[in-house]
Here is the input.
Amino acid sequence: MSSLEASYDLNPYLALPCTESRIDRLEGIGRLKGMAPADARTARVLELGCGQGGNLLPLGYGFAKATFLGIDLSGQQILEAQKVGRHLALENVTFRHQDVCELGPDEGHFDYIIAHGLFSWVPEPVRKRILELLPQLLSPDGIAFVSYNVIPGWHLHNWTREIMTFAAHGLTGMARLDAARSFMEGLAKSPRLPDVARQMLASAQKDLADKEASYLLHDHLAEHNQPFRFDEFHALIAEAGLCYLGDAESNHLVQEQMPTMAGFERPSETVYQEQLSDMLRNRSFRMSLLCRKDAQPSDLPHLENLQELWLRSYLQERPDLKPPSGFVMFETVDQKVQIGVPQGRICQALQRLQLVFPGSAPFSEFQQSTPAPLAGELLELWKFGYLDVLPRAEHYPIVSTEHPLASPIAQWGASMSQQITRLDHGRVTIPAPIRHLLGLMDGRRNLEDLAKEGVRLGYLDSAAPLQEVARFVDWCQKRLLLVSSEPVR
Here is the structure.
């Protein structure tokens, strides 16, 4: 058994979904870039380094007619993934204990390949093998999702990592993390620290405060953690016969216009723009989308392809906020960002999308004459993550809040972590003890039953349990944690 396999067997990585890797989202991006990717509803999907299935199992639940294969080096994590898959009765998801390097062309083609949290965290020969496999295993219009750490932004994290690994030298498992945290706390309290070091330590501790223990063990304290400059990564994929499609984060799918430096010989326009953007924004992490070279995607989105796509907005109108003259105020559904939107067609489109949220509406519904003006404005909102571009309609069933039924995926998540998976593959944070109410929402208990059981088990404040349950159920319904008896898709 290798040291890498042993580290994950002894300390499994917390299973969480990666929202950006949702396969119908990748399909929509591919179509917008001029490709013809497979229909996500019936696609064949491979995840390399699937862990305990935290990403693949929710995808399997949401796309019941697609087939999924997860590969991981850790036998213990695969056993857990298989156990949960059986519990959820997901016959379309298979997990296999296998070294990525053992895969070959005999596996056949996959429409979507996900390698999240893998590329930077394995030895160089494994990285090389991953890049060899992708063009072999991708279907002609297949899309690969590969995440990795990026410099210059990772330099500060690497400073933290060096301190932590120094403090944890010679230790194993959780003892490494305990020693690293204790050492950093002791350093921060030292009266002899230079001001710059004190500020850097304070920033590092703030960044680490809300991180799960498994994340720190397998990231900052990992045996392997290799960040890349974008131009280095681009050269590696080009040599392997792969093409850069864009990044999965919507705000990196439309290239920004970076400053032009006279006399500087650019490697290519894409590499120049992306690398300079990373440097000026001090970016530390990327989720890049790749395809085979012969797929020949467009560098820029095809505005005309929006006619066949669907939109979902994460903006809600806030009439109680006073906007500048000629504007309407909107706020993101997580209440973190407020923006003013000019009155007119774009504002009307957002108001219409708000009515169908969390569902979607076709772009063609908003089109009156020429596509360019409205398409360009919508792409700006998409670029900043306020919209999703999807290949087809997405509707969520009306659910009962009298006898609430939490999705099996949400119930599973609540048993492990405060990070709970939504039906749209997003995540919400629900602290204990109230999150354990999700495990009681079986469609048979009404609100009074839930209140009594919640008080008995200590999940609720006994002062007003019925009102507390009613608020929590309404909150869960709005955040796509509840289901009807019908399949979601």
Q: What stands out?
A: The longest strand covers residues 138-149. The CA atoms of residues 87 and 420 lie 17 Å apart. The radius of gyration is 24 Å.
